[in-house]
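Schema walkthrough. Field components (list of strings):
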Amino acid sequence: MLEIKNITCYYGVICALKDVTITIPDDGIYAIIGANGAGKSTLINSIAGLVTPVSGSIVFDGKEITSIPTKDVIRTGIALCPEGRRIFKNISVYENLVGGAYIMKDKKRIEENVNYVYELFPRLKERHRQLAGTLSGGEQQMLAMGRALMTDPKLLLLDEPSMGLAPNLIDFTFETMVRIHRERHIPSLVVEQNSEMALSVANYAYVLEVGRLTLEGTGEELLASDEVKNKYLGA
Ligand code: ATP
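Field assembly_structure (string):
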């Protein structure tokens, strides 16, 4: 379970998150929606150790992880699929996947995970020897999601996985998120500007507005909320 308690983050004088408290239990898909600049990436990055909160605490599976380096966060079982993919462009698809499992020692399990990623994304299997930098944007997104699964994570963090994708790939991305949850029972926290898709798959969701949480509820409740409809669903 991930417990974020009263975290506040600044960039210089800009307050990006103010007193944010969220609990992510061991099961389910959780979403954070909000407009540009609402603080969604800051929230994900503070969990991943890429941004240091000025106050508050983040506890994962009973271990305090506030402000610890990203490499140590990953060892606790949290995997990050970052905004903008950040795959290694000069090595192959296969090498990206195996490289993503660098904290794992069990070679057999690494190969099982590669095969699972290829099952989820047959296009990656077809292109396993291709340099990752030559993949299309959608394929790079598949690789970033696949790579995040390579460590057998206990929590998956996804930062704007649908950004820049064509409509059919956006659907596929969210369907895959649901499939991973169903087949591997990995809880996930997804931050998204595509509020409608995120809320349609989320068991529970939060709305961030200029650094503060303003609404929360099940995906269904938020999809039905007039405030969400007016502000985020283009009603
Ligand atoms: P988007 O959907 O556009 O990615 P977001 O909800 O993820 O937005 P953040 O990227 O977390 O929002 O940004 C929150 C606020 O913090 C914004 O006002 C942004 O300009 C500011 N900010 C983010 N990163 C930095 C930085 N490295 N230096 C200064 N200000 C930053």
